[in-house]
Design a protein that fits this description.
The protein contains 14 helices and 19 strands. Bound molecules: flavin-adenine dinucleotide.
Length: about 450
């Protein structure tokens, strides 16, 4: 006998919201979670502060998901930021907005967000089975789903797949949902890493500057070998998701802000933002990243300033002069790249050497070898193809009674709270729709 109306597979942000909402509407809900507890990814999100959503208006909000963002209009029309914030407040969680419109719990503690969902699920008697990894879902001729786990099988009228992407596997998201969905006839857009640090060919150079965090710089991704890229094409405004203007080839994306050097290459906020464009462009050929360390100055202004310093402090070593221009750990690597001796006094620096330094300050060049693996990405791009899902209900267009929500779908966004809002919104709508479908079966 079927004693469950809705089975939710996966207890992340999307699955917990879906389970709670379906139960709130009167469905008997079973939540199957592969790990020992729900909400593990929420706990590490926003550096454990959980950036829940963003204050951006709907148009700019949707733009952060790229072309697939259109799909979210339906879910956002039903449950968006105001609804999310009042839901959280109802459960005692106050929020605050910070720089860039990022919304966090006032407590700065992601555990408080998980506590809200624990209470929500308990309030509406959602049955949770943890350590239950779903390995198969099938549908019999009576439109009843059988959900298989190592410890047993569960029957239900409807199933919601909320298994997340394939990144950060310690939180439970290992891409299981793709095989389950494909087994039910759904097309999967190849998963790829988004919001991911980049490995460069110039690893020794990156390693020599490891740990240096740069602010107020411009990084620009170009299609092409670093040595061949014309640095004068570096734009003076941002291009990329959520920006109004589109880049002209060979520019792929350009961002002003913070980045850092790691032992393998490049990381930090603006590199993560550019990473999906880089990953996609790597399929078409070499990709390079040029870093303008002094974007506020033109090459000519920088030349005048450096020449004046070389004249004024003519007895100082070049390394001493460069203290005004670079973080300490970058000075020797940059001087070496310019082919100069670090001991050289300023008055011996030739015009050619000075110009080489200027070139490096305006365009420090790296060739991207690859992104870090999918497991290390903040989100997974790709997933269950959206054209097979009804955006208003999150129901499968192929299998009646099947629903999707969260990152398992071919949806991903830049940082700023957008990924979690999409998970909450699609979870809410999937839960509501599955409950409605189960109710309609009872009436039939
Ligand atoms: C380090 C990090 C920081 C982040 N910070 C932010 C942030 O501040 N703001 C933001 O908006 N986004 C952030 N994100 C992204 C955001 O956390 C995710 O997009 C979002 O949590 C996805 O929610 P989900 O419910 O779809 O998937 P998940 O949270 O991945 O949940 C999926 C759940 O399904 C379970 N599961 C998987 N397979 C099975 C199976 N076979 N059987 C049963 N259960 C299964 C998993 O164990 C997991 O609990 C961050 C991501 C990372 C990795």
């Amino acid at each position: 006998m079927i004693d469950t109306d809705v089975i939710v597979i996966g207890g992340g942000a999307a699955g917990m919201m879906a389970a709670g909402r379906a139960a709130e509407l009167g469905s008997r809900v079973l939540l199957l979670e592969k790990t020992d507890r729900c909400g593990k990814k929420i706990l590490i999100s926003g550096k454990t502060r959980c950036n829940l959503t963003n204050t951006a208006d709907i148009k700019n909000f949707i733009a952060m998901y790229g072309p697939n963002g259109r799909f979210l209009h339906g879910a956002f029309a039903r449950f968006f930021r105001p609804e999310l914030l009042s839901f959280l407040q109802k459960y005692g969680l106050d929020t605050k907005a910070e720089r860039g419109g990022r919304v966090f719990p006032v407590s700065d503690d992601a555990r408080d967000v998980v506590r809200v969902f624990q209470k929500y699920l308990a309030d509406y008697n959602v049955r949770i089975v943890s350590n239950a990894r779903v390995s198969s879902v099938s549908l019999d001729q009576h439109s009843c789903f059988t959900v298989g786990t190592a410890s047993g099988r569960y029957l239900s009228q409807t199933v919601i797949i909320a298994t997340g992407g394939a990144s950060w596997p310690t939180t439970g998201s290992t891409g299981d949902g793709y095989a389950i969905s494909a087994g039910l006839g759904h097309r999967i857009v190849a998963p790829k890493p988004a919001l991911v640090p980049l490995v460069v060919r110039e690893q020794n150079l990156a390693r020599s500057m490891q740990g240096v965090s740069l602010r107020n710089i411009r990084a620009t991704a170009f299609q092409g070998e670093a040595a061949r890229v014309d640095s004068s094409r570096t734009p003076d405004c941002d291009y990329g998701r959520g920006e109004k203007k589109f880049p002209r080839p060979p520019v792929l994306e350009s961002r002003f802000g913070e980045m850092l050097f790691t032992h393998f290459g490049l990381g930090g906020p603006i590199i993560l933002l550019m990473s999906l464009a880089v990953v996609e462009a790597l399929d078409n050929g070499p990709v390079s990243i040029l870093i303008d360390l002094k974007p506020a100055l033109t090459g000519e202004q920088l030349r005048k300033r450096l020449q004046s310093d070389l004249n004024k402090f003519s007895k100082r070593k070049i390394t001493g002069i460069m203290k005004e221009y670079l973080p300490a750990k970058m000075i020797e690597p940059v001087i070496a790249l310019a082919g100069m001796d670090t001991e050289k006094p300023a008055h011996q620096v030739s015009a050619v050497e000075r110009d080489r330094i200027i070139d490096l300050l305006k365009a420090l060049r790296f060739n991207v070898r690859a992104p870090l693996p999918l497991a290390r990405a903040i989100v997974t791009a790709g997933g269950v193809a959206l054209d097979e899902i009804d955006p208003r209900t999150l129901s499968s267009k192929k299998v009646p009674g099947l629903y999707f929500c969260g990152e398992v779908m071919d949806l991903d966004a830049d940082t700023g709270g957008y990924n979690l809002q999409a998970a909450f919104s699609t979870g809410y709508v999937a839960g509501e729709s599955a409950a409605g479908f189960a109710r309609s079966l009872l009436r039939a």
